[in-house]
Amino acid sequence: MRDKKFWLKAINLGVLVLTIVFFVSPVCAAENYTIGIVGIDSRIKDKNLNLGDYTDLTQLENPLVYAQKIFTEILTTDLPTIGLEGVDKTANATSKRIAEVNFQMDLGNPAEAMKLFDAKLDYLIYGYITNMTVTHRESIAGSNLTVRIDLTTRIIDASTGKVVCIATGKGESASHGGAYRKSFKLGGSEISEECWHEALEKALNQIVEKIKKQV
Amino acid sequence: MELIRIVSLSLMMTLIFTSSVLAKPFEGKTSGVGIFVGEVACYGEHEIRPEFLATFKEQLWQALKDFESKGKLHTVGDDQWLGNGNAASGFAGIIRVNTVLRDIHMDAIAYGPSFAKESANAQMIHYAERALGEDYFWDDEKIAARKKLIGKPYHISPKMTNAAKTVGEEYDADYLLFCNLVDSDIQLKNSIFNASTTLSERPKQIKVASYFYLIDTKTGLVYEGYNFSDKTGQILNLLGQYGKAMTAQNLLQCMFEVQSKRIVEDMCNAGQKVLAKGN
User: Fold this and answer.
1) Which of B198, B242, B243 sits opposite A46 (nearest CB)?
2) N or C: which end of chain B has fewer CB within 10 A?
3) Any idea where the domains of chain B sit in the sequence?
4) A21-61 pLDDT per residue, tens
5) What is the pTM of this model?
6) CATH number of the domain at A34-214, please?
7) Given a cut of 60, is residue A202 above it in pLDDT?
8) Are B65 and A8 in contact (CB < 8 Å)?
9) Which chain A residues touch B76 with a CB distance below 8 Å?
10) In chain A, whose CA is at the least distance from the CA of B249?
11) Alpha carbons A146 and A136: distance in angstroms, whole number
12) Side by side, which strands form the sheet with A189-192?
């Protein structure tokens, strides 16, 4: 014959197991929110820094398309750590697409904006290059080039069309003169792939950190 | 006794896990005072290009969020100033704008002690003349008396005070914030670069000025804050950082960033204190 204490312990254990089954498992299995990575555009209209007016020197693709790739790469890697699964939704005509998304959001039609994307998404993220400086210095040690860029990203709730997060970041990279494997020319300065990549990466890392704080 | 303990334990676990399941990303904090940003616009003589205004809005958001993380404030109704009429797309002129918020902003500017008709755009001048009467701006005594009120709280029209209260109640906001980027010029050697042109020469002189209006939704009092940056000091710092190759556009962006931080600091430090004191 089992005593009262035994039965109480059994009930205790049973309740705990049930709690775990019903409440812990949904948390573990909770699916990530999906975020569509729309792309990146440039707001710089300055004739010397217009990314559309680049000169291809050694087979580096359009710097804006390159920036686009880095943007997608970093966000798809880093956003899942904060519960946002990045879905690559970039297309060739990114700037037009961003303009269209903005336009539909302005009109208050998030549903119309979402028609541009084939999957059902919870959020959309897109960014702009808002500022850029290219500094060229000559010294005894050789030439030195510094690229600084400012990036900004907006996250939009796809169901309501509201801007839920904005994050800005700055990136800087310096490189010494020499023969670059891949580079492009912008406003009289030759920018290497490494330099461009590093500046973008630093700015995006800052952005991801700021998004983490706002989640 | 033990049964009660078990039930309470399971209830607690239920609450904890339910809340974690329901939490959605980007659901803002609610500590500190509630700030509703009504409008960020340019009612100055020179129009600002939409992309500049959009970048300024983003910098202002970032500055507000930095203060939000300190627990001093939280923003409400962000879609009102970032969503509709969003200048980022360049369609701000043709998209519907919240006219109530625009009118509150223009009313705060018109009744503000620093308002100068000479440096306002046509829309603002028409509004001020309608609100205060055309003769008001020819009366030197009234203008002089008005200038003495700089730094002190003042009232806007009763109609707009009620509108501000309604907006505050609707969004649960303690204060409404409006920004007017009134002036942003960079003078080159022989020409003037302003935010509506696309010149890319090296800047020689800069002037960026902005006003912000903080409205207490409970009392209807308004605090007018002013931020001004000119060529001294700051430009030298920025030139040291970016070198001589820095263009006018770069410089303007940097100045806007400084302005956005100052607005939020001034609003939190001076603005709220002045409004709390009252008349």
Assistant:
1) B198
2) N
3) 30-181+211-227+261-277
4) 555 544 444 557 888 888 888 887 766 566 666 666 555 66
5) 0.78
6) 3.40.50
7) yes
8) no
9) none
10) A46
11) 7
12) A55-56, A183-186, A189-192
